[in-house]
Amino acid sequence: xPSSPHSDIRSGDWIxxxxxxxxxPYARLMRLDRPIGTWLLLWPCLWGLALSSDxxxxxxxxxxxxxxxxxxxxxxxxxNDIYDRDLDGRVARTQTRPLVSGQVTLQRALxxxxxxxxxxxxxxxxxxxxxxxxxxxxxPLVALYPLAKRVTWWPQFxxxxxxxWGALMGWSAVSQSLAFPALFLYxxxxxxxxxxxxxxxHQDKEDDRIVGIKSLALHLGKHSRAGIxxxxxxxxxxxxxxxxxxxxxxxxxxxxxxxxxxxxxxxASWKMDDPANCLTRFRSNRDVGFIVFVALxxxxxxx
Length: 303
What we know:
The protein has 18 helices and no strands. It is an all-alpha fold. The radius of gyration is 19 Å and the shape is globular.
């Protein structure tokens, strides 16, 4: 598969090497070659599990959330590509995606989406009834996010609502209910997404301006660094509040500041007009998610 220097699809990667030719376009539709989105979807789930568990979270629940993150992130990507099939051809980074390049037809993409949702449904059935219905309630957000960038300068907010829903589900998977710590955790995750996805959106801001796509990168413009610093600050405060409400041990407060240090590094080294730098800083949020998870896990274990 040919790819331009700016494409988000790379020829010769593990998909080309390890998968049969007929499966490759579907793996790329799911962004299996770009796992950062799966990590960013998974971490809030694991935060919720860690926050609501006494000690080590249930490993089976962790596995189910990991599998669900792969499936549902993939479904969201396919829906996004279906909505954007007429726009992606006008953006340098997305011109080689399977729907735009004709490797997958619209009918097959719709059928594939249905299959992914059915797999997600089967995974949801493994949880308690409250968590099952909580997961079902997230589906409108998954479907609506790709439309948000057409009508609001804040599509990152809609993405945050969808991507951090797992924080609520992780909590309810243990407690079979919701409580204030889970709500603070969820809201903190929303602000985290507002920050990291604004960095991501700066990759495409020139193309987005041309095709009429809205984003916080365009809305905030030169004030993006200050805006992201504000979002990240609220994220850190809200996570700390959620942790304090469940009475985490002092170890949490020893580890958690590492997330602040990482975010300071992100913003200090971020070059908003350099797409490669934007992508690197965006991807580094996988490490932020890991730091928060370890802090919550140790804080609960040593409470």
